[in-house]
Amino acid sequence: MTPRYTELQLDALRELANIASGNAATALSQMLGREVGLTVPRVLALPLVDAVDACGSPDESITGVVIPLEGDIDGLVLLLISTEGADALCRLLGVEAGSDIGDSALREIGNILGTSCLNALASMTGLNLCPCPPHLSTDMLGAIVSSLALTQTESADLVLVLDSELDVADEPCSISFVLLPSDGGVSDLLTPLGLAA
Amino acid sequence: MGEIVVSKRAGDELVARGLGSCIGLALVDRSAGVAGLAHIVLPESSETDRQPGKFADLAVPELIDRVCRAGASRRRLEAALAGGARMFELGELDIGARNADAVRKGLATSGLAVHAAETGGSRGRTMRVSVGDGTITVKEAGGELTILLDGSAGGAHLPRASATLEGAHR
């Protein structure tokens, strides 16, 4: 199923994702003043079609906030926020969901979560990682995930998805936190850990 | 995604959900009641990856071949395409536009005209084909349903007609 990565490498990536999303959860909790729960991350190395299915129903409407990465590795961080979740986040921040200011607030959440995730990855790997300004789109899940994955991989043959769920306490808000490294970015993440592909 | 489906069973519906930069290519022969749909991901195959449904260069001839084997007549085929969006202003390559160009080029090479198309823009789309009457629709995320091919209107090779559905049809 995952010929290009060994179990050991996938474990290492899972651990990276765990610490990165843990940092992001802490940042979100501080921002909202709520507890934020975190699931154990999944590390999926799948063909694109299965990677999209693993994220949800392809024509489900969802808000995606994308933070492209620059520096030593290429890739991107993607937050997938359900419509309900986006409403709840905007309410907690005191802005109107669906408005320009609501979108801007969600982008800012993406920025903070993406940056805290990158800080964790950078300190573990010693890599220089910078977030680019976030993009936001409310659209079909399949369209968002497949289009983004295709910007990171040449073949779409095997897409690596690291994702975990952040749950905001007492709110119908769960955010799927997805790391999409580029083909080359995966080995750049593994090399500093002594697990070069 | 990367799949090709063909049917001649009236009542079947072929669907490509959540098309972003991908292209949905539908071919129908309304007289024979045969329809096919390909969910094309990238413009060109490589030496190492030659999955027929995934790449425009292989998927266009493959889809034509499969609908014809299912009983369609090549000269009656009507083609419609949807997708090829640029969802995010990321990277230098506009994969959606390259996909749309590659599919159009493939159809031209095979001598097929494009009956109707909804490509480009920045929204995701879902494309549906009704096997039997050959109606082809596309719906944009948060938008309206557009009829690319109205199967209830008689005669093949109508001029391009894409109307907005207002509850009257079907």
Main beta sheet strand tally, sense and closure of chain A: 8 strands, antiparallel
Low-confidence stretches of chain B: 156-170
Which two chains share the most extensive interface? A-B, 28 and 32 residues
Radius of gyration of chain B: 15 Å
- Rg of chain A to the nearest angstrom? 16 Å
Beta strand % of chain B: 25-35%
**pLDDT average of chain B, as an integer?**
89
- By oligomeric state, this entry counts as heterodimer
Task: Describe the structure in your own words.
The complex is a heterodimer of chains A (197) and B (170). Chain A has 197 residues and is an alpha+beta fold. Chain A contains six helices and eight strands, in the order H-E-E-H-E-E-H-H-E-E-H-E-E-H. In chain A, 46% of the residues lie in helices and 28% in strands. In chain A, strands 1, 2, 3, 4, 5, 6, 7 and 8 form an eight-stranded antiparallel sheet that branches. In chain A, helix 1 crosses helix 4 (100-125) and helix 2 crosses helix 5 (141-152). The relative contact order of chain A is 0.25. Chain B is α+β, with helices and mostly antiparallel strands. Chain B has helices spanning 56-69, 95-109, and strands spanning 4-7, 13-19, 23-29, 34-40, 78-83, 114-119, 125-130, 136-140, 145-149, 163-164. In chain B, the strands form two sheets. Chain B has a five-stranded mixed sheet, covered by helices on one side. In chain B, strands 2-7-8-9-10 form a five-stranded antiparallel sheet, with no helix packed on it. In chain B, helix 2 (95-109) links the parallel strand 5 and strand 6. Chain B is globular, with a radius of gyration of 15 Å. Mean pLDDT of chain B is 89; it is low at 156-170. The interface between A and B is medium-sized, with 28 and 32 residues.
